[in-house]
Amino acid sequence: MNIAQILEKMIGFSDGNIHDIEHFMKVWTYAKTIGELENLDRDTQYILEVAAITHDIACPLCREKYGNTNGKYQEEEGGPLVTEFLADTGMTKEQISRVAYLVSHHHTLTLQGIEGLDYQILIEADYLVNAAESGYSRENIENFIEKIMQTGSGRRIARAVFGV
């Protein structure tokens, strides 16, 4: 499947939850933009974009099962869900495995744990959207830019969006 088809599939999976749909669309847009500005190779860019689209696939289940969408619950439940979700897309087992890894770790922000530019960019893109949606403080945003963001384009975008 191409990216547009995966987007359509995820929109359907979201069952009309506008917040969830708008959230992953924004994360995907930032991830796509940063990935292209960082000159990712074609396969890594594809994996990044699929991961950005599906990164919160566990949110509906977590709301039902736990009553919230805590990041650790999302990581725990997300891998198996995204593996099943992508099974009929024509992606290779290796691609699906990498997407599942990214979805299962997208709330793990330690520098020692961020392995791969696709992972780094997903963390950055999700943060940009979460910061805007949740009204993070200027201090929090500046700290994230300085300590967690590693891509030049992610830092430039964050500074432009938040005026820091």
Cα distance spanning the termini: 39 Å
Name the CATH superfamily classification: Hypothetical protein af1432
Give the class from helix and strand content and strand pairing: mainly alpha
Query: Under CATH, the topology is which?
Result: Hypothetical protein af1432
Q: In oligomeric terms, what are we looking at?
A: single chain
Shape: globular
Radius of gyration: 15 Å
> What fraction strand?
under 5%
Provide the number of structural domains. 1
Uncertain runs are none
From the 3D coordinates, which CATH architecture would you assign?
Answer: Orthogonal Bundle
Helix content: over 70%
Name of the CATH class: Mainly Alpha
Count up the helices. 9
Write down the overall mean pLDDT: 92
Q: Based on DSSP secondary structure assignment, what is the total number of beta strands?
A: 0
Largest sheet composition:
none
SSE string: HHHHHHHHH
Description:
There is one protein chain. The mean pLDDT is 92. This protein starts with a helix and ends with a helix. The chain is an all-alpha fold. The chain has a single domain, classed as Hypothetical protein af1432 (Orthogonal Bundle). It contains nine helices and no strands. It is 72% helix and 0% strand. Helix 3 packs across helix 6, helix 4 packs across helix 5 (71-86) and helix 8 runs antiparallel to helix 9 (152-162).
